[in-house]
Each structure stands twice: as C-alpha cells, then as structure tokens.
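Database export, one record per block. Field names are fixed; values are copied verbatim from the stored entry.
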Amino acid sequence: MKLFGSSGIRGRFGDLITPEFACRVGQSVGAKYDRVVVGWDTRTTSPLLAGAVLSGLASAGCNACSAGMVSTPTLANAARDFKAGIMITASHNPPADNGVKLWNPDGSSFGMGQMEETERFLLGEKPALAKWDRIGRLESVDNAVESHILRISKEIGQLKAKVVVDCGNGAGTTITPALLRRLGCDVTVINEQPDGSFPGRGSEPTEENTKPLAKLVAEHGAVIGLAHDGDGDRVVAVDEKGNFAGGDALLPLLCKLEGRSKVVVPVNASMAVERAVGNVQVIRCRVGDVYVSEKIKETGADFGGEPSGTWVFPKVSYCPDGIYAAARLVQIASERPLSERIAEIPKFFTVRKRLDMPPGMREKAMSHVSTALRSLNPKETSDLDGIRAVFDDGWILFRPSGTEPKLKIVAEAESRESADRLLQTALKIGKEALQ
C-alpha cells in the first residue's frame, strides 16, 4: 500500500497531510459509511484537520459526529455506536506530523481490505458530492469520555492505590487521571496540560523521557507510574522502586497474566514471551496494532500486544487501549509489587536502533540486508515482516518502519555482550545497505 503504514496514515503536515487530503479521507469513508464519529488529539493541526474530515464526510452524504479532543481508544470506544470512526493523530510521531486512524465499531482498525479500498478511493478520481438535499448532518457527542470511563470501571472495579501519571501533554490528559480517581486511586499527574508541541517530555514515553516520572514515583511512595504517548493508545510503566518497565518487560508479563490459550505478538517481540507463558500458544504476526488485532480476531486469542507499549484486550476492545491498560496495570501492581512480578520474567537483552532511510531506498536496502544476513549462516530466517535472522545466541530483525522513513533494527540475546555484538553487526549491514 502507498499511504497506510502499520498504524494508519501519517506524515508531515503540509506535505502528505493537508486539509485537502483530510477532506478526501472524509469523503472516502463517508462514501461507504453513513454515520461516522471523529475525534482528535492535542496536536496543533488536529482541530483543523478534523474540521476538514467532518466536511468531507458531510459532503459525501454521511452524518458526521464530532467527539472533540479525546484519546484514540476513547474514539474507538465511541465508534461502537457508529458505522466507523476516524481519529486525527500521529500517535508518538514528532509534533509537526499528523495523520488519521480509521476504526470499525468493534474497536478494530480498518483491515487490509478496507485500507486497500480506501487507498483506491483516495488515489483515484475526485468523488462526486452529494446533492444539496442529501448533504450529511454535522452533530456532536458529548459523552465519549464518560462512556469510556464507565466501560473500564465495570471491568476493573475499585482500586485503592497511590499512582503517578505522566500524560505527556497528549490526549490521555482527557481521561486517565479522571478514570483512576473514579476508581479510588490517589493520583499525582505531570504534563497534564494538553499541548500539541509536547513540551513536557516529547510524545514518546521512552526510558530517558520518563526519568522525572520515575523520581516522583519513588518520592511519593506510589505503587506504579504510568506514561502515555501522544494519543493515549500506548502506556508504559515505572515500578514502585522507580525502575522503567517498558514494552519489553510488560509484554511477557501481560501475556502471562492475560493469556489462557493463545496470545499474539509481533516478530519484534522478545523471546521472553514464549518463556513466560508456559503452555499458552504464542502466535507471531507483522508489526503494527492493526495486524495484532486482526490475528487476535482470526485466532480467538486472549490478548495481544507489542513492545512499543500497545496492548489489546479483546474482552474490552480490539483497539489498543492504553487507558484500560493503565487501569489494569494499577490493579496488577496493587495486588503485588510490579518489581517482583517483572523479576520473575526470563531476562533477555533487547537493543534497538533506527537509521534514516531516504525515499525510494527500501527495496534496494532490504535486498542488501537479505544477502548480508545469508552470508552469516543463520539457523533460520523469516520474512513475515522485514527480515529476521536467528543465530545460536540470539536474533536480529531489520524492518522498514510503517510510520516513519526509518530502517528499524532490533537485536536480542541472553547476555548484554551478545546483544551488543549482534547490534553492531546489524548496524554495519544497515549502514552499508543505505549507502
């Protein structure tokens, strides 16, 4: 596909992502679905693009409903009462980027067939406008956040815990602190002011960016710290000792706690998942929440997630719900210290790097990578998503990003030395491939 990546369509505002493009997205979706809800994150350009999407929907004869500034999982939850949902967001991308995510009523992202159909419409001829007496209505929904809070509250129940939340100036500001307080938590919040420039720590909750959160968790004696990305579909944690618990630690833990028969993880997930879940079947898929959700639906899995911090609980929604995940993690940490739980997860060392990949380099670069990896005589290789090579002491994955012009490299092994050695080998191959 030319427009859709691993999680919607994203790009720099003013390049691919323009008001005209957003209007076309609305027309594309509105031509097929007659009632659609639209939400947006805190980015400076999001209200403008949302207005264009709403206009496009109405011009196609679709009744368009505005949910306002909400998190992505809140918008996906609201889509249950509509034929589809459109979220204006670039998730964890830089502030100058923006994009769209498209949702079905069950909380799943548009599947491959739907994305291909939407692309054909977006890249084809300009759609015909509805006649003047068939223009869709513009409406609003005022209870999207409250509806999401109530749904999560019914699943989680009451909690009594001291928690620190880093909203990252993103859309999680609209719901997570209120939800946790409703559940009975003592909540301290940082970076709570919605701000599309993400001045507090950037839009991505990395270990480096969450150091102030870790300090506050230790100072306040909290059971856990939580950090969202820009649109609230991701969440990572800090344990009660102030140690960062990112996706590599939380994914095997959540698979262990949520999995009964099957769990779904992407090809870039740690081998610790298989070690942690015992007899539960681990199903691998392409990287991207849309592929995790599709595979969960296809196989009837109990849970799915990614090392990026996206967690899919199908009993609640097929949307990666960082808001529900935040409440669930508080529940888990309240029952037993998070540090103890994570200490029981088999330890592997995972290292990641991103290399800039100029436009048009993808095919040539991956061909070079494939040839170079074969020369290293790996035990096995996989091209399910990118190229993954397994060796005696670990594995390497090369994968073009689905959301940024980057070549992503992951290496994992049982020791830090082996992981670093595999990464250096991979970086040499990657840099040569991009020359």
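Remark 1: The first strand starts at residue 9 and ends at 12.
Remark 2: The two ends are 25 Å apart (CA to CA).
End of record.
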